[in-house]
Specification:
- This protein is of the alpha/beta class and 278 residues long.
- It folds into two domains: 143 residues, 3-Layer(aba) Sandwich (D-Maltodextrin-Binding Protein, domain 2), CATH 3.40.190; 96 residues, Periplasmic binding protein-like II (D-Maltodextrin-Binding Protein, domain 2), CATH 3.40.190.10.
- 38% of the residues lie in helices and 25% in strands.
- The strands form two sheets. Strands 1, 4, 5, 6, 7, 8, 9, 10, 11 and 12 form a ten-stranded mixed β-sheet that branches. A two-stranded antiparallel ribbon has the order 2-3.
- A hairpin with a 2-residue loop joins strand 11 and strand 12.
């Protein structure tokens, strides 16, 4: 009798163990540590930097890795041209990308996981008058406006039906084109102008802001196409927890210290890196 009870307990225990294994397999199957889950970014110094060995570093890289770790997801961040980064996130499932500016045109294409940076978008050129232009459509009076090819500012001008756009493959080329007189103006940001002007071989301090567009937030985003809503919720919750952690505080302090020598005013507020003076 005792033996029969022990055998039944063993059977019941085995059944319970089997059920737990199956449930665990299902749970871990939802963890996208597979080639079907991608994390992409386009290196843009100083917050995402790629070295000669194609290794990525920078504050945003560490923040995104922290969010992934908090969500119990192990996946390498890969670098790609910006056009591919945005295209992959728009048409494929399970693609996480950063840092994507949030615009009305993009709103319905992505899960907006968490804001990473905030910046002031503006147009700069040779002008004696600051904020010479008051409306976007007035920019058609500029002969040529330099932008980064396929950047959100490029898209803004395209949507505004501008025909005076001059795209470049790097921001440094775009800035230098204005300094050298190849372009009349550039659509960038206060922080971007300070950073790339410092790196430029030519003096571009005479360039002034001629048009103020608006403050823009750039996000960590997840593709919507056939992506499980639970994955988006999981990443959002992980991002919220991570941004309230001591690890995040120490991480941001470390990088702000590293960036002190850069000619870019910046400060943290509500878990977002603001690229202007506090």
């Amino acid at each position: 009798m005792v033996w029969w009870k022990l055998r039944m307990s063993f059977r019941n225990g085995s059944t319970l163990f089997f059920i737990l294994v199956v449930l665990a397999q299902r749970v871990f199957a939802q963890v996208p540590n597979t080639p079907d889950f991608w994390v992409l970014t386009n290196p843009e110094a100083p917050f995402v930097v790629q070295d000669d060995k194609r290794q990525l570093s920078g504050m945003l890289v560490d923040v995104v890795n922290g969010v992934l770790s908090e969500a119990n997801i192990k996946q390498q961040i890969l670098a790609a041209p910006w056009e591919r980064v945005e295209r992959e996130a728009r048409v494929k499932s399970n693609v996480l990308v950063f840092a994507l500016a949030r615009t009305p045109e993009r709103e319905n294409y992505y899960h907006w996981i968490t804001p990473l940076t905030a910046n002031v978008f503006a147009v700069y050129g040779h002008s004696a008058t600051k904020d010479h232009y008051q409306h976007l459509d007035e920019l058609k009076n500029i002969s040529s406006i330099a932008v980064l090819n396929n950047d959100v500012r490029h898209k803004i001008l395209l949507n505004a039906k501008m025909t005076n756009i001059r795209p470049y493959e790097s921001w440094q080329e775009a800035v230098d084109s204005v300094v050298n007189g190849q372009s009349e103006a550039i659509f960038l940001s206060d922080a971007g102008m300070q950073f790339f002007c410092e790196k430029s071989t030519n003096n571009c301090k005479e360039l002034k802001r001629v048009f103020m567009y608006e403050r823009m937030f750039s996000y960590l985003v997840l593709s919507k196409a056939e992506t499980d809503e639970q994955l988006a919720d999981r990443l959002k919750s992980a991002a919220l927890r991570f941004k309230h952690s001591e690890e995040f505080t120490q991480l941001t302090r470390h990088w702000l210290k590293q960036y002190e020598e850069l000619p870019i005013p910046m400060h943290m507020e509500d878990g977002v890196l603001n690229l202007w003076q506090q």
